[in-house]
Amino acid sequence: MSTNNGPVESLRDRKRRQTRERIIETAFALFMERGFDVVTVDEIAQRAEIGRTTFFRYFGDKQEVVFSTEDDFLRALTAAMHDAPAEPLQDLAQALATSRRLLLAICTEAARNPGHYAVYHRLVEQHPELEDRHTRKTRHYADLLEKHLIDHGTPPATAVLAAQLTVACYQAAWRLGSHDATAVLREANDAFDLLLGATAA
Amino acid sequence: MSTNNGPVESLRDRKRRQTRERIIETAFALFMERGFDVVTVDEIAQRAEIGRTTFFRYFGDKQEVVFSTEDDFLRALTAAMHDAPAEPLQDLAQALATSRRLLLAICTEAARNPGHYAVYHRLVEQHPELEDRHTRKTRHYADLLEKHLIDHGTPPATAVLAAQLTVACYQAAWRLGSHDATAVLREANDAFDLLLGATAA
DNA sequence: GCGTGTACGGTACTGAGTACCATTTGGAAC
DNA sequence: GTTCCAAATGGTACTCAGTACCGTACACGC
């Protein structure tokens, strides 16, 4: 996937990427070992062999390390949006069909790294403050979804609801398919079936 | 509503309630005036004429002041749950009908104090960290909803989805009916109509 | 090699939240 | 009213997250 990163990777870029990865690995190890809240930034910095200041140059705050894979998901989403067929998106059912496909693109991306997802899931469910931040991410996806729908002709009220319903399916899947990215993907599909099955009945 | 609070209100209880209210009023005034993040707890404590320590005795953290009306909503929800008719709750449509009624009970409670709601809405939408916490509240409601459904015979997967869909309708309403509690109540109703309308079609 | 900009580490600061202290004060029993 | 007790309070001191600033080292382009 990311074997071709721009022109060439300079020494500086490589070092930067390496320290970033070292921070992430160190932090995740410590968080899983002893819990997010009791691990201090100082500790992470020491073990990763960097200064405290440097940590905050790479990540805005302590929580941000946990959400470091965010960019991959956003890339997957925007790619899926770009590939989306230009179909009519007037009513709720049509809007849901599209946003379903977009959500599944994100889940599929998550399933590409099941180990990381499992750890992430565990951390988030054990720490309310991380769960808060996790739902902020989800809100952001909803915003992007909503915008995409509106840009393709969906009436605002319908688009807002469709985006939120999609998030609802994801949240349900998150609760039901814990720790396992593939299970979450399947549960999200089931949730949509259940939701749309009610539509068909 | 709350004219009969237990046996009798002692002097101690009255003083406690008064300081609590003084803290809330002071904090909201300062937050609205200058923004949540730049107001310090020291400042709130000084203006409310209490010690910094006392502030944290009344509220676990600075954010908690913003969500001080939480208890009223929870009371309204549990009351509505208790009053709910014992109807069959097997399929998604039935579960949604019930959770719709419960959600509207909460919104109605919120509409009883429109001024506060408007300020609350404004604060939350202007500060991501408060929005994080706001959705934590919403998650909590979803949990209660889900439990209620399961306790009344709804299959777990259906209950989880129904609870999340209800939250979705609320979130859509929150976005569409900004600042105005009555408008949010109406939008939540509309969202359910749209959702169930797709069901009927 | 030689400037230049970027990354880095260190110090010092503010503010949130916690732990512990002594003091005050309301309530109750006599 | 006095006495005793528990609850409420205010203050001090601490840890840690996050920010601002400064001097230094190093990769890069020439």
What does this 3D model show about the protein?
Two copies of one chain form a homodimer. Chain A is elongated and about 55 Å long. Residues 1-6 of chain A have low confidence and may be disordered. Chain A has ten helices and no strands. The first copy, chain A, has helices spanning 11-34, 41-47, 52-58, 62-66, 70-83, 92-111, 114-126, 128-151, 156-176, 181-200. Chain A is 77% helix and 0% strand. Chain A is mainly alpha-helical and 201 residues long. The A-B interface holds A 91-93, 128, 131-133, 135-136, 139, 142, 156-158, 160-161, 163-165, 167-169, 171-172, 175-176, 190-191, 194-195, 197-199, 201 and B 91-93, 128, 131-133, 135-136, 139, 142, 156-158, 160-161, 163-165, 167-169, 171-172, 175-176, 190-191, 194-195, 197-199, 201.
Percent of residues in helices of chain A = over 70%
Structural class of chain A: mainly alpha
Order of helices and strands of chain A: HHHHHHHHHH
Oligomerization state of this entry? homodimer
Separation of the first and last Cα atoms of chain A: 41 Å
Unreliable residue stretches of chain A: 1-6
Mean pLDDT value of chain A? 93
Count of helices of chain A? 10
Largest sheet of chain A: none
Pfam family, one (chains A, B): TetR_N
InterPro entries (chains A, B): DNA-bd_HTH_TetR-type_CS, Homeodomain-like_sf, HTH-type_TetR-like_transc_reg, HTH_TetR
Keywords (chains A, B): DNA-binding, Transcription, Transcription regulation
Organism (chains A, B): Streptomyces gibsoniae
